[in-house]
Each structure stands twice: as structure tokens, then as C-alpha cells.
Write a structure and sequence with these properties.
Layout: H1 2-21, H2 41-51, H3 65-72, E1 80-82, E2 99-103, E3 107-112, E4 117-124, E5 128-135, E6 144-147, E7 169-171, E8 185-187, E9 201-202, E10 205-206, H4 254-291, H5 300-317, E11 330-331, H6 335-340, H7 373-376, H8 380-394, H9 408-421
Antiparallel strand pairs: 1-2, 1-9, 2-3, 3-4, 4-5, 5-6, 7-8, 10-11
Helix pairs in contact: 1-4, 4-5, 5-8
């Protein structure tokens, strides 16, 4: 009997371990992605529509787009235009008819001129990124349709941290909008060098002598080397490239693009930490039950997996390896000013949403998504690790080279801002009278 028990236990361990390597691990307990019940900005909006508490007005020109942006408090100034055929409605997308993307801290919304649907992805505290479409035909009953299959072909891979997530790419695109994959591509986040960003995107704004791949349409299927994109730099007017009246604004704002890349990256890291902790604890409970151990018995492998995911999120929050800017940036739509107005400020009027845009993205290098519902919804074991590590770094107890980009002044400012503006901090955060020498 003991031999049979050991064989059974071995099979269980091998089975659970193999699940950890499966691409669709999140489709199994404890995540159950496709079967899980969403709880996010779109599901809550659907509830308001169903109850009659809210209605969305339909406009003949833009459909439900203006009303949905208003209902979700997504600023029009966030508009960005992408002309690569890399989305659900690819037949609608060309360099003359780009897809528009709008976003706030939780929701990303895609719009195609004369498109069939609005495409939506939203951060969900339990399920990571959840995908929806909304029919662009006027209807008496408005229904967001959740997608759990075709969207995951692109939005669940190593490019999205192996979880259902957001994907921002830079690639070379020819005149029909088809990507030239043979020429290579880049997955873009705040660590990506400026020169590799925005292939396949329109970009409006000024950035000095530093160059990027935006506004570039390749003639033919061969990308000339070296790439000459002089005409695509410091563009502030798209009227010669597209019919701007087909969109809510004439902009594809440079600052909005920078924030989109950062935010998508951090959202993916939040989901990765969320899933990793829940999966590790689920594995632990299953194994402890098979061994007859106490449910709370913590395995070393559980702790390592949780801490590893938490450290990856920590690096994203603190802008580790952020690509340095060589010249000041300025957008065209006013998005920077709109973005900075949102969110809490301390008694010195400092905010984690304050932008630098001269040598780096933020004045105080700690992501504003630390205030998000997705961050707040992380498992307690992730919060425990993150708050301790943040405290060690911001108080100067951790002087690892990885965090050398954070000056003494940066660390002090971030700590002081968080103490005043972030509810629920551990008690030990409240007793740092003079965290670092000024």
C-alpha cells in the first residue's frame, strides 16, 4: 500500500508540474480564465445598462464610440492611430484608414472607421485582461460580447508574460498595411530604445534629434537598409497622410504612446504576479492534501515562485532599465496635461502622475498603476513581498545596482508620496520620520 501511495503521489507531482509549463495553465483551477466571472469596468457598465441606470447614445458617424468613452471616462486626447493589419478588423486597416486606440488606467478601446465593432480590453482583478467587442449597429439592447478564444492567439504568449495580456508592437508595414515580418519586429515597453518604437503607428509630437520608426510606410516588401525615416520625425500634422475628420481628433499623441507602452507592460506584470501566486498556492494545497500535511504548510518552491513574480512586478513599477530620453518630448493633443490632472497628490502637490519627459517618463519613477484596482486585487502574499521590498529600496536599505537610477531624492519623494496617498500600507511604513538624508 505504501508503494502504491508513493506511485500515486509521483504521478500527481508530475501532473501538477507539467501544468506549470502548459501555455493554457490559466484555463485550469484556480484561474479558470474562460469560465470565470468577470468583474471589471466593462462588466459593471453592462450591469448599469441592463438595469436601465445608464444608456449609450448612438451617433451615425462614430457609432457608440463617443458615448462609451464618456461612460468609461476615457479621454479623447489619448487617441493613437495604428495602421498595421494586426487586429481583429484587419480588413478595415490601412495607412490611409488606421485604427484608433483610446485608453485610461483600466480600459483600452479600439475603433476602426466604418468598422463592425468596437474592440475592448480591460484589466480585471481576477482574470487579468478580458476582451470584449461591442456591435457598432444601433440596437435597443446593448450587449458587450466577451471573447476567450481568437483574441488569445496573439494576446497570450511570451510577449504578454504568458498570461492574457496587452501587446504593443513595432514593425515595418507596407502600403496596404501588411506587416513585413521578415524585416523583424519589436515588442515595446518602457525599456525599448526610442529608435525601435512605433513602427506601424502614426506619431504626432516633437522629440528633438532622437529618431523612431513611426509614420513610416515602406514601399514594396523589402525594407531598405539603413532605414531612412527622416520624413517621419517630429510630425505634428497628419492631414497629408489620412483624412483626420474620420477620427475624433487629428492626433496620434507621442506622450499617449509612451504611457500606453508603460501601462500595458505593468498590467501584464500585475496579471503574471496574480496568477503565479494563486497557482503556486493551489499547487501547494493540492500537494499538502496528498501528503497529509497541513494546508498552510509552505513549500520552498511556492515561496520562490511567488517572490520571483513579485520581483518582476517590482522592477516594472520602479522603471528598472527604462530607456533614457536624449531630448525633451512634447505631444500635440494635450494628453500629458489631461493625464497629470488625475490621481492623488500629497500635501506638497506631488503625484506619481507627474511627467518628466525630458530624460525619463516620470518625475518620480514609480508607476501610477500602484493605485489601480488590479494592483489592489493582488493576493496578499504578493502585497506582503512588494511592500517590504519597496520599503527597503525607498528607505535606502537596498542599494542594489539595479535601482541605481533612483536617486536619494527620488526615493524620498516616492516614499513620502505613497505614505500620504496610498491607503493600506503596512504599519512600518508609517514610522519612517526621516527615511533618507536629503
Amino acid at each position: 500500500m505504501k508503494y502504491i501511495h508513493l506511485i500515486t503521489l509521483f504521478v500527481l507531482v508530475v501532473s501538477l508540474s507539467s501544468r506549470g509549463n502548459a501555455a493554457d495553465e490559466f484555463e485550469r483551477p484556480p484561474i479558470d480564465y474562460s469560465r470565470g466571472t468577470p468583474d471589471n469596468a466593462i462588466s459593471r457598465l453592462q450591469g448599469m445598462l441592463d438595469s436601465g441606470e445608464l444608456t449609450l447614445n448612438y451617433e451615425p458617424r462614430f457609432g457608440y464610440l463617443p458615448a462609451l468613452l464618456q461612460a468609461l471616462q476615457i479621454p479623447r486626447e489619448s487617441q493613437m492611430l495604428v495602421f498595421s493589419k494586426t487586429s481583429l478588423q484587419l480588413r478595415r486597416i490601412t495607412p490611409r484608414t488606421p485604427r484608433a486606440i483610446y485608453f485610461n488606467d483600466d480600459v483600452y478601446l479600439g475603433y476602426c472607421h466604418a468598422g463592425d465593432v468596437l474592440e475592448i480590453s480591460v484589466a480585471d482583478s481576477n482574470l487579468g485582461t478580458v476582451f470584449y467587442t461591442l456591435d457598432q449597429e444601433a440596437r435597443d439592447s446593448i450587449q458587450f460580447v466577451r471573447h476567450t478564444d481568437n483574441c488569445l492567439i496573439c494576446h497570450s504568449s511570451s510577449r504578454t508574460e504568458g498570461v492574457p495580456g496587452h501587446l504593443v508592437r513595432s514593425l515595418f508595414v507596407e502600403s496596404t498595411g501588411q506587416p513585413i515580418f521578415a524585416a523583424g519586429s519589436y515588442t515595446v515597453d518602457h525599456t525599448t530604445p526610442f529608435a525601435q518604437r512605433w513602427g506601424g503607428w502614426y506619431v504626432t509630437g516633437t522629440h528633438g534629434t532622437q529618431t523612431h520608426l513611426g509614420n513610416l510606410v515602406v514601399e514594396g516588401r523589402q525594407v531598405p537598409q539603413p532605414v531612412n525615416n527622416e520624413a517621419g520625425q517630429n510630425v505634428t500634422d497628419l492631414s497629408t497622410r489620412i483624412l483626420t475628420t474620420n477620427y475624433l481628433t487629428p492626433h496620434s499623441d507621442l506622450v499617449a504612446l509612451m504611457l500606453l507602452e508603460h501601462q500595458a507592460f505593468v498590467h501584464n506584470r500585475i496579471t503574471k504576479a496574480n496568477f503565479a501566486a494563486r497557482q503556486a498556492l493551489h499547487y501547494q494545497r493540492t500537494l499538502n492534501a496528498a501528503l497529509g500535511e497541513a494546508e498552510e504548510n509552505r513549500l520552498d518552491s511556492t515561496t520562490r515562485r511567488i517572490n520571483s513574480a513579485a520581483e518582476d512586478l517590482l522592477d516594472a513599477l520602479l522603471m528598472v532599465d527604462e530607456a533614457e530620453l536624449a531630448a525633451p518630448l512634447r505631444g500635440t493633443s494635450g494628453f500629458a496635461e489631461t493625464f497629470e490632472k488625475i490621481g492623488p497628490r500629497d500635501d506638497r502637490q506631488r503625484s506619481l502622475r507627474d511627467l518628466d519627459l525630458s530624460r525619463r517618463m516620470f518625475k518620480y519613477p514609480c508607476s501610477y498603476l500602484i493605485y489601480s484596482s488590479s494592483f489592489d486585487g493582488l493576493p496578499e502574499v504578493i502585497h506582503e513581498h512588494l511592500w517590504l521590498r519597496l520599503w527597503e529600496i525607498l528607505t535606502g536599505r537596498d542599494t542594489s545596482p539595479k535601482y541605481a537610477h533612483l536617486s536619494t531624492q527620488d526615493r524620498t519623494a516616492i516614499l513620502e508620496i505613497l505614505v500620504q496617498t496610498k491607503p493600506g500600507l503596512p504599519d512600518y511604513w508609517q514610522h519612517v520620520a526621516e527615511p533618507l538624508s536629503r
